[in-house]
């Protein structure tokens, strides 16, 4: 009987665009099944949830009123099992669900939905200029890419004038705290200003997972550099009804520090 593969080692080191994309494609392909088992009930099959706090687009209307989505072409980036796209389709929109991970999109196929699924890198979107009215990304792509401006420019390219891109990411302040849901996660343990990526490496030193940190100011500058106009930044508060834990997210931490940042961007 073969020995199980050793657990990856966590470190902080540089990781470029190519290494980050390769590592994260592999990680999501390997972990998609476990992710959907663990979080599928919370996410639902056809809900549009912006993050672990449970903020729902039905209430938030960050893409606009639900009744205005009918007939809109919408690109979901980092769609996973396409739960958000399924909700958009139910509002009469025409979504396209894009993800780097083939295995995640197989889960989208398993659940079903009459809209296109596209396996591609967010830094090289396979669509013509001005193909979409709206774009959205709930924790998709942006936390995992080495060059967020490249992704933002690609999104702006495929949006029509007057379009909107809304994306959620880990709130930058969380990088200063340990990724723990309990009291041990309430003490600052790292510099907020340290942008060195979090990287998990295998026994040969090859990256198998990469996550990139940007400060709040970095995110704002990236949005401006890509040619977007920043309309709003939402920081969801932890709701009373949500008693679940998700990684480092928890009611304890969520009542004290923000866990998610949502950026609303306009393409003028």
Report on the structure:
This protein has one domain (9-267). 28% of the residues lie in helices and 22% in strands. With 268 residues, the chain is of the alpha/beta class. Strand 2 (73-77), helix 3 and strand 3 form a beta-alpha-beta unit. Helix 1 (17-43) runs parallel beside helix 4 (102-111). The termini are far apart. The longest helix is centred in the N-terminal third of the chain and has 27 residues, at 17-43. Keywords: Methyltransferase, Transferase. Residues 1-24 are annotated as: Disordered. InterPro entries: Methyltransf_11, SAM-dependent_MTases_sf. Pfam families: Methyltransf_11.
Oligomer: single chain
Helix content: 25-40%
Q: How many H/I helical runs?
A: 7
End-to-end Cα distance, whole Å, is 60 Å
Q: Quick one: overall form?
A: globular
Number of strands: 10
Helix/strand structural class: alpha/beta
Number of domains: 1
H/E element order: EHHEHEHEEHEEEHEHE
Strand content: 15-25%
Poorly predicted parts: none
- Trace the largest sheet across and list its strands: 4-3-2-5-6-10-9
Question: Nearest-angstrom radius of gyration?
Answer: 18 Å
What's the average pLDDT?
96
Largest sheet: 7 strands, mixed
């Amino acid at each position: 009987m073969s020995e199980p593969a050793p657990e990856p080692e966590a470190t902080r080191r540089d990781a470029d665009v190519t290494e980050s994309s390769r590592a994260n494609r592999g990680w999501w392909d390997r972990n998609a099944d476990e992710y959907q088992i663990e979080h599928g009930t919370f996410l639902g099959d056809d809900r549009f949830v912006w993050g672990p706090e449970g903020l729902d687009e039905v209430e938030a209307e960050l893409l606009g009123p639900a009744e205005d989505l009918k007939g809109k072409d919408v690109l979901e980036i980092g769609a996973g099992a396409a739960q958000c796209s399924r909700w958009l389709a139910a509002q009469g929109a025409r979504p396209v669900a894009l993800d780097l991970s083939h295995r995640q999109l197989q889960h989208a196929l398993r659940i079903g939905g009459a809209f296109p699924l596209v396996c591609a890198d967010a830094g090289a979107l396979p669509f013509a200029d001005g193909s979409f009215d709206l774009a959205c990304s709930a924790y998709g792509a942006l936390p995992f890419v080495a060059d967020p401006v490249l992704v933002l420019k690609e999104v702006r390219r495929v949006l029509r004038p007057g379009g909107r891109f809304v994306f959620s990411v880990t709130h930058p302040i969380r990088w200063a705290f340990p990724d723990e849901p309990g009291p041990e996660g309430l003490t600052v343990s790292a510099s907020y200003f340290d942008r060195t990526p979090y990287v998990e490496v295998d026994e040969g030193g090859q990256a198998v997972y990469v996550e990139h940190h940007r400060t709040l100011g970095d995110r704002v500058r990236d949005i401006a550099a890509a040619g977007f106009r920043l309309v709003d930044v939402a920081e969801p508060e932890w709701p009373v009804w949500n008693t679940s834990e998700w990684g480092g997210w928890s009611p304890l931490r969520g009542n004290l520090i923000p866990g998610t940042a949502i950026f609303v961007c306009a393409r003028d």
